[in-house]
């Protein structure tokens, strides 16, 4: 079974109430929910939130929401708590081989094919999975806000970094992307249920602290992250100015 969970926290330093912001006549959380429900490989979709106003918006759109604690540190933790609640109340079967796909709650026009592309590799042996896309410009490669990935021959992550990796000796960094195939991280995650329980119990790691990337905690602990290339990327709404960008991207 593959379950989609959309973490949607009400509080945000840059954009309080972001999940309820109007995106072309609908709350953003409804837009995300509707896109996730179009994915063929998801057996069910839920919203994990900490606010009754978001619950009301989800239910008004015909969706299902789960209340979680406000103080949870990440979307991964919110997915885990919501999933456990759904298992405990009998909504979902308690099967360690279930998968949970963490659907970003701030991408109102996420392409359902992107979700299906990730879900396609969830064969029971995969512990964790996420997506990547080729880097096509020096601007993206050198940006600290774009996370770069190196991987092994089985397309399993070796490392994630805000720095461009690998370093190309003797080549101008502005031209690195023309001499090597770099990949950037696209932040859609899938977790096997038993692994999700384990990674949310791990202490913060030194590499995670250094790069401010939670997936490095999992790698340091010895878990395997499968990488799936995608041609789909969605405009995220991180602050109010991004609403118009998201609407333009959907045209």
Q: How many β-strands, per DSSP?
A: 11
**Count of individual helical segments:** 10
- Overall mean pLDDT score? 95
Low-pLDDT ranges: none
CATH topology descriptor? Spore Coat Polysaccharide Biosynthesis Protein SpsA, Chain A
GO biological process, one term: CMP-keto-3-deoxy-D-manno-octulosonic acid biosynthetic process
Protein name: 3-deoxy-manno-octulosonate cytidylyltransferase
Main location: cytoplasm
Enzyme class: transferase
Explained architecture:
Belongs to the KdsB family. One of its GO terms (molecular function) is 3-deoxy-manno-octulosonate cytidylyltransferase activity. The chain is built from ten helices and eleven strands. By secondary structure, the chain is an alpha/beta fold. The strands form two sheets. Strands 1, 4, 5, 6, 7, 8, 9, 10 and 11 form a nine-stranded mixed beta sheet that branches.
């Amino acid at each position: 079974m593959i379950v989609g969970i959309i973490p949607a926290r009400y509080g945000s330093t840059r954009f309080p109430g972001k999940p309820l912001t109007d995106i072309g006549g609908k709350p953003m959380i409804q837009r995300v929910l509707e896109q996730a429900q179009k994915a063929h490989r998801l057996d069910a979709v839920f919203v994990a939130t900490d606010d009754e106003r978001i619950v009301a918006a989800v239910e008004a759109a015909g969706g299902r929401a789960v209340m979680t604690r406000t103080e949870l540190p990440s979307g991964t933790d919110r997915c885990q708590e919501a999933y456990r609640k759904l298992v405990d109340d009998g909504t979902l079967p308690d099967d360690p081989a279930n998968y949970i796909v963490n659907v970003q709650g701030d991408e109102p026009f996420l392409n359902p094919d992107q979700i299906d592309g990730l879900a396609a590799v969830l064969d029971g042996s995969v512990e964790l999975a996420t997506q990547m896309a080729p880097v096509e410009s020096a601007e993206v490669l050198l940006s600290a806000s774009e996370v770069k990935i190196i991987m092994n021959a089985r397309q399993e992550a070796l490392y994630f970094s805000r720095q461009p990796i690998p370093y190309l000796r003797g080549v101008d960094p502005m031209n690195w992307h023309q001499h090597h195939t770099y990949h950037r991280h696209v932040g859609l995650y899938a977790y096997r249920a038993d692994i999700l329980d384990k990674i949310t119990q791990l202490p913060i790691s030194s590499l995670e602290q250094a790069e401010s990337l939670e997936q490095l905690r999992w790698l340091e602990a010895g878990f395997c992250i499968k990488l799936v290339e995608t041609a789909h990327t969605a405009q995220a709404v991180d602050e109010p100015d991004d609403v118009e960008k998201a609407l333009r991207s959907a045209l």
